[in-house]
Amino acid sequence: MRRIIARLRPFLAAEGHRDNVVPPSGHTAWLTTFTAGAMTFLAVFALALSLAASRMADRWEGALARTATIRISAPPDQIELQTRAVLDLLATTPGIASARRIERAESLALLEPWFGPDLPLDALPLPQLVELTETEAGYDTTGLRLRLSAEAPGAVLDDHTRWRRPLVLAAERLNLLGLVSIGLIATAMGAMIVLAANASLAANAQVIRVLRLVGARDSYIVRAFTRRFTRRAFLGALAGTAAGMAGIALLPAADAAGGFLTGLGFQGAGWLLPLLLPPAAALVAFFATRAAAFRKLKELT
Amino acid sequence: MIAFENVAYNYGGGELLSEVSLKLAPGSFHFLTGPSGSGKSTFLKLCYGELLPTAGRLTLFDREVRGLNRDEIARIRGRMGIVHQDCQFLDHLPMAANVALPATVTGREAPMQDLADLMGWVGLADVMQAMPPHLSGGERQRAALARAIIMSPEVVLADEPTGNLDWDMSLRLLQLLIELNRMGKTILIATHDLNLIRTAKQQVAARVLRIAKRRVQLAGADL
C-alpha cells in the first residue's frame, strides 16, 4: 500500500513545469473530473446501502436467532397444565437462558393492529405462547421437539428459521448488490476515463509528435497524460465523496419506525470508509489512462 | 554514425528511394539536395528512425534500426538534434520551455543561464517567454535549431531549415550550423537552396548528396 501511495504521490501533486507538456484545457478535463465526481457520489450511497444491509443481516441473524416461540394449542382445561409442563421442561433444558409465558393481554395487543379494536378477540381460541431465549451455546432443537411432544403434545416449537432465513438472505443479497454496484461504478468510471484519455491523446497528436521528435520515450508521454487524468479524477472524486457524505449525513437518523431506510448511513468508524473512494478513483484513473495511452501510442507509431 | 547499405524505401505506391548506400562520418557536413518530392524528407526521416527502410540495412550509432524498439529509437533521437521542416512546438508552453524540451523529456533540467545563452546565440533572447504562435517564421526556425542543439547532440539533421527565412537570416542560421560543425557535430541539411550550399562550401568542407531517380548520389563540384 505504501508503495502504491508513493507511486501515486507525484501524480496527485500540483502540476510542475516538467510534466506540463500536455495542454491543460479541453473537454476531456471537465469530463474526467465530472465523471469521477458523479460516480463517486453514487459509490458513497452504494457503500452506505451495503453497510446498512450488512448491519441488518447481522442483527437479524444474531438477535432473532437467539429467540424462539413455543405455541401450545390444547383444549381449555389442558392449556394451563401443558404450559406449566413446558416451562418446567425448559427450565431443565441445557442451552435455554430464560423462558416466559406470553400473557393473553400481550397476545391480544399483538393481534389488535391486524384485526382492529372492534373485533371480539376475547372470543377467539388463541393458543398459549411461550417465548424462550437461548444461551450463546444454543440448545438441541431436535431433542427439545422430541421432549415437548412427550411432555406437552399440544406444544409446537417455532425457532423463527422459516421467516428469518429469507430476511437474512435478502439482507445479504442487498449487501452484495451494494458491493457489485461499487464495482460497476468503478468499471463505468474506468471506461469513461479511457474514452476521455483516448480523445485527449487523439486531440494531442501533434504534442505527441513533437515529444517523440525531441527524444521522449513512451513512458514519459504516458506519465504526462496519466498524471493529468489521475489528478483530475482524484479531485473530482474528492468533491463527489464530500457531496455524498453530506447527503448521507442529512438523512434522518436511524429510527425503529422508519425501518431500513432511516438506517441507511454510516456508523462510527464506518464514516472513514468513503474516504477510501477518492484514492480508489485515482487508482482506477491511473490504470485506465496508462493502458489507454500505451495502446494509443502503439497505434500512432 | 549513420550508415545506409542498399537501403530502399517504398511508400506503398512505388519505391521512393532505392539502393541507397552511404555513410555519414562523425564531424562531417553534408547537404542533401533534389527536386521537391524526390525524397529528401523521407531520407531524413530514415536517418532519425521515424521511417524504417523497406529493404536493405540502416544502422544508427551502430545499431540496426529495424531491431530497435520505440524506447531505443527515442534514446537514439536523444543523441540527435532534429530541425523539422514545419517547426512544430508545444503551443501552450513559452519558447524557453519549448527549447528546453529535449532536456525536460530526459529528466534533466537545462540550467537557465545555458538556456538564456543559447537563445541569445540564436538571437531569441527577447522572446524567451513568448508563446510559439506569436513568433515569426524566422524566429521559429531559429528556435527549432536551438531546441535541436540544446542537448549538444552528436548529429544535427535539418530539413529545409532556411525555407521561411530571408537571405540574411538564412546566412545567420548557416553560420550557426557551421559553428556547430566546427565543434565536432555531424551536420546534414536537406535544402534546395543552391546559393546556401555554395556559401557554405566556401567556409567548410561540405559534401553534397543529390537525390535523383530514387538514388542518392554524391554530387560533383558543379554546385
- In spatial order, strands of the major sheet of chain A run 2-3-1-4
CATH superfamily heading of the domain at 2-79 and 153-218 in chain B: P-loop containing nucleotide triphosphate hydrolases
The proportion of residues forming helix of chain B, as a percent range, comes to 25-40%
CATH class of the domain at 2-79 and 153-218 in chain B: Alpha Beta
- CATH architecture verdict of the domain at 2-79 and 153-218 in chain B: 3-Layer(aba) Sandwich
CATH topology of the domain at 2-79 and 153-218 in chain B: Rossmann fold
Average of per-residue pLDDT values of chain A: 83
Distance between the termini of chain B: 26 Å
The proportion of residues in beta strands of chain B is 25-35%
Number of helices of chain B: 8
Protein name (chain B): ATP-binding cassette domain-containing protein
Keywords (chain B): ATP-binding, Nucleotide-binding
Domain ABC transporter (chain B): 2-223
GO molecular function (chain B): ATP binding; ATP hydrolysis activity; transmembrane transporter activity
Sum up the structure in keywords.
heterodimer; A: 301 residues; 8% strand; rod-shaped; B: alpha/beta; Rossmann fold; six-stranded mixed sheet; four-stranded antiparallel sheet; 33% helix; P-loop_NTPase (chain B); ABC_transpr_LolD-like (chain B)
Descriptive notes:
The complex is a heterodimer of chains A (301) and B (223). Chain A is an alpha+beta fold. Chain A has two domains: 2-61 and 172-299, no CATH class; 74-153, no CATH class. Chain A has nine helices and four strands, in the order ααβαβαβαβαααα. Chain A has helices spanning 2-12, 27-62, 76-91, 104-115, 141-151, 161-203, 205-213, 218-249, 277-299, and strands at residues 67-72, 96-102, 128-134, 155-158. In chain A, α2 (27-62) crosses α8 and α8 packs antiparallel against α9 (277-299). The longest helix of chain A has 43 residues, at 161-203. Chain A is rod-shaped and about 100 Å long. Chain A starts with a helix and ends with a helix. Chain B has 223 residues and is α/β, with parallel strands linked by helices. Chain B has a domain at 2-79 and 153-218: Rossmann fold (3-Layer(aba) Sandwich), CATH 3.40.50. Chain B is built from eight helices and ten strands. In chain B, the strands form two sheets. Chain B has a six-stranded mixed beta sheet, sandwiched between helices. A four-stranded antiparallel beta sheet of chain B has the order 2-1-4-5, with helices on one face. The mean pLDDT of chain B is 89. Chain A: InterPro entries: FtsX. Chain A: One of its GO terms (cellular component) is membrane. Chain A: This is Cell division protein FtsX. Chain A: It comes from Szabonella alba. Chain A: Keywords: Cell cycle, Cell division, Membrane, Transmembrane, Transmembrane helix. Chain B: Keywords: ATP-binding, Nucleotide-binding.
